[in-house]
TrEMBL record, chain A:
Gene assigned in the entry: paaB
NCBIfam families: PA_CoA_Oxy2
Protein name, UniProt field: 1,2-phenylacetyl-CoA epoxidase, subunit B
One Pfam family named in its UniProt record: PaaB
InterPro entries noted in UniProt: PaaB, PaaB_sf
Species assigned in the record: Duganella phyllosphaerae
Automatic annotation (TrEMBL), chain B:
Pfam family name, one: PaaA_PaaC
Gene3D superfamilies cross-referenced by the UniProt entry: 1.20.1260.10
This protein's name: 1,2-phenylacetyl-CoA epoxidase, subunit C
Biological classification of the source: Bacteria, Pseudomonadati, Pseudomonadota, Betaproteobacteria, Burkholderiales
Gene Ontology CC annotations of this record: cytosol
Species: Duganella phyllosphaerae
Domain of life: Bacteria
Cross-referenced NCBIfam families: PA_CoA_Oxy3 (TIGR02158)
Length: 102, 250
């Protein structure tokens, strides 16, 4: 994606990342990105491009420039220490049927 | 022809012709997102066309179905308003045509949800959400273009002026309209006109556009099958395959 390019060239609309919570969904999921001149149009466009106007959905849009991502080179330091400590993962208990979405 | 069938065909023809016009812009929108939106609106309108035609064909009872109505009628049988057959032009022309229509369409459909005809009320109920979105979108774009750059302002004002003479036909009141209003099927035309003028004035003020004079000459004839020179070309393209291979299954 030409994220860098689009924020630098003033004539191009800025890039927005789109998060959508579907009708029965519990959380907003990143579904893609689009270009729009401002937040209101980004929401409108997200409706057209990503939801086909299904009812009961919630849309978040955020400027791509406002997102800070972790660096792939930090992967080891950030995530690997968790792998060797199985006691951090509650995987030894059978979960009751009634408990959903945990 | 039965007034109600006639009225339903008018509703269907308006939606079909505008849908066809918007479909021609597929892949030509000024941005990918606008392109999607135009196609979405076209699809909404096509869906509405099918519902109106289906009901009209049923009432008519002459063995015609939605395809027959769309593909086997010539220009003088089409009852769409002249506004909708006007060329796409530039994007300001397209969006102004859309805005004039959407404003009327929204208030009409909202009124039809209270129709004494249950089937019409049900179709209107289903269409209202779509039409509400169409109006929000085209009003928003008119404001953005009118209150944008000097060039976009000039183009939007030019579109508003050029299409104005076709904006009043929808409020025309002939025997068919009168029968529908008297039967409680359709909302009164003067009520729609008041609502239409108020909304257009509000959006134009926000868009820094000058509203053309309300007593200007209004061209009409579409509802009676007297069209501008554009409709024949639209139909020639739209109906070609069915004309070449009549009644082919597809």
């Amino acid at each position: 994606m030409s994220t860098q390019l689009s924020t630098q060239t003033s004539k191009e609309w800025p890039l927005w990342e789109v998060f959508i919570r579907s009708q029965h969904g519990l959380a907003h999921k990143h579904v893609g990105s689009l270009h729009a001149p401002d937040a209101e149009m980004a929401v409108n466009n997200a409706r057209d491009v990503y939801t086909r106007r299904n009812e009961g959905v919630s849309i978040w849009v955020v400027r791509a420039a406002d997102i800070v991502a972790s660096s792939p080179s930090d992967k080891g330091a950030l995530f690997e220490p968790a792998n060797s400590k199985v006691y951090r993962h509650p995987t030894f208990f059978p979960m009751p049927e009634e408990v959903k979405n945990l | 022809m039965d007034a109600k069938v006639n009225y339903l065909l008018r509703l269907g023809d308006n939606a079909l012709i505008l849908s066809q016009q918007l479909s021609r812009l597929c892949g030509k929108g000024p941005a990918l997102e606008e392109d999607m939106a135009l196609s979405n609106v076209a699809l909404d309108l096509l869906g509405q066309t099918r519902l109106w035609y289906e009901y009209a064909a049923e009432l008519e009872g002459a063995g015609r179905d939605e395809d027959r109505l769309a593909y086997h009628r010539d220009a003088h049988d089409f009852k769409n308003c002249l506004l909708l057959e006007q060329p796409n032009g530039n994007y300001a022309d397209t969006m102004m045509r859309q805005f004039y229509f959407d404003t009327w369409h929204y208030f009409l459909i909202a009124g039809l949800t209270h129709s004494s005809d249950e089937r019409i009320a049900a179709i209107a109920e289903k269409s209202l959400k779509e039409v509400t979105y169409h109006l929000r979108r085209s009003g928003d774009l008119v404001v953005r273009m009118g209150d944008g750059t000097d060039i976009s302002h000039a183009k939007t004002q030019a579109a508003a002026d050029a299409l104005w003479m076709y904006s009043g036909e929808v409020f025309g009141y002939d025997a068919v309209d009168q029968a529908m209003v008297e039967a409680g099927i359709a909302p009164p035309a003067d009520q729609l006109r008041t609502q239409w003028l108020a909304h257009v004035a509000e959006i134009f003020a926000e868009a820094t556009l000058v509203m053309p004079p309300q007593d200007a000459w209004m061209q009409s004839g579409g509802k009676q099958g007297r069209h501008t020179e554009h409709l024949g070309f639209i139909l020639a393209e739209m109906q070609f395959l069915q004309r070449a291979y009549p009644n082919a299954q597809w």
